[in-house]
Amino acid sequence: MFTNPILPGIAALLLATSGWGGMFLVSKSVLRHVDPFWFTLVRYTISGLLFAALIAPRGMEPWRKFKANAGALAVRGVAGFGFFSVMLLTGLAHSVPSHGAIIMATTPMTTQLLRWALDGVRPTRATLWTSALALAGVVIVSGVLFPHGAGAVSTWRGDALAMAGTLGWIWYTRGTTRFVGLDVIEYTALTVLASWPLLLVGALVATAFGIASVPGVDALAVSWQAMLYVGVVSSAISVLAFNFGARSLGAVTATAFLNFVPVSALLLSAAMGKLPSVTEGAGMAMVVAALLLHTAASRKAAGAAAATPAAAAIVQMPKMAQAAVTGSGMAGRVCGATT
Fold first, then answer.
1. Contact 123, 115 (CB under 8 A)
2. Mean pLDDT of the chain, nearest integer
3. What are the extents of the domains in the chain?
4. C-alpha distance from residue 105 to each of 89, 134, 270, 309 (Å)
5. Given pLDDT bands bounded at 50, 70 and 90, which one contains residue 146?
6. Which of 160, 215, 227, 310 has the fewest CB atoms nearer than 10 Å to its CB?
7. How far apart are CA 36 and CA 84, in angstroms?
8. Is the pLDDT of residue 169 over 50?
């Protein structure tokens, strides 16, 4: 169907990032009726059913893996779906959709910093500089230094909660290297299913302490379409599309497409009549520039790492040839001595 094998990967990544950009706009409207705890539960109930149907044709093998790793999968799922979603949605309730999208785009650089803290893998100088640039862009977008317009209120508290929530998602994605026996679909599906009972418990406990409230029939009637979009498109289709694009084009290229998350959110906001302020536009430009520079530096480092073994092989070739010649000369002298 596609003459160019790159096109399906590009289409998948654009689909994924557009779905995530739209998620922030849609979720903002839901939060007027459903609190973050119950919204998270409904969201991953929908996506969990989809993922269960997706792995059903594989028979009992995924469920045997589930049984062997249920506890560890549940912990990862709570971090990646529970903590991340509740913090992100709580922050969004005190901020605006475009800010959440911009913060999400900073996760590749935050991942490198977290690796430094947890694994002792020091990031490159380029990563440190681009992370600082991205953080400065987020600060400007949040209105800490320059409030957006007369009477505008800074959204830094909500943005800080959303930023903290991304740490849960990063820790969740790090789990893919631990569960080597699970492919991408299995890891995503099984972590959703394993963590779902804990997400339910979390919503009930939050309700018991007055932090959350069970949504009523009227609230669900008003927001069910938006929650269906987030559960199906943002939490299932976008994840699968991004994984397909990353596998087709590589992780570095897929990371570059995260630039489109805040861009799509801002374009959708503009289409709905909410134009960004000058400072919001400047902050977004700083974050996008930081991610582009980070991606370019990562691609250059990956190319250098790939070129090193090839260069070493080229260096070894003359030595091997010389050894072969020397060996043949020695063989000739040996043969001459014996004849």
1. yes
2. 82
3. 6-338
4. 16, 9, 19, 33
5. low
6. 310
7. 11
8. yes
